[in-house]
Amino acid sequence: xxxxxESGGGLVQAGGSLRLSCASSGRTFRSYPMGWFRQAxxxxxEFVAAISWSGGSTYYADSVKGRFTISRDNAKDxxxxxxxxxxxxxxxxxxxxxxxxLSGNDHEYWYWGQGTQVTVSS
Length: 122
Fold this sequence. Notes:
The chain is mostly beta strands. The chain has strands at residues 2-7, 10-13, 18-26, 34-39, 46-51, 58-60, 68-73, 78-83, 92-99, 109-112, 116-121.
């Protein structure tokens, strides 16, 4: 079993930045593609970004492309989401997930973190 623990969420003003981290435990996550998803109140969970097991391939939602960067440090079993130029519409609970393939479909992910709140004030 893989356990994922997110950190780094918080309150930030529009235009600011946050860096989310997702640390894994249990089994190594090196063989898993990793993704970030988010869910705002009253809305469906949506894909944010994904990264291959090696870190060589990434995939971003159009809404965050150019502003967010996903990366991973396999030596530390950690995946990151650097969020720059944040907007109020980025406010959501952010979840990291480990899956079977590089995908924006949440059904392709098997393990999920507990989520971390990101709030962007205007």
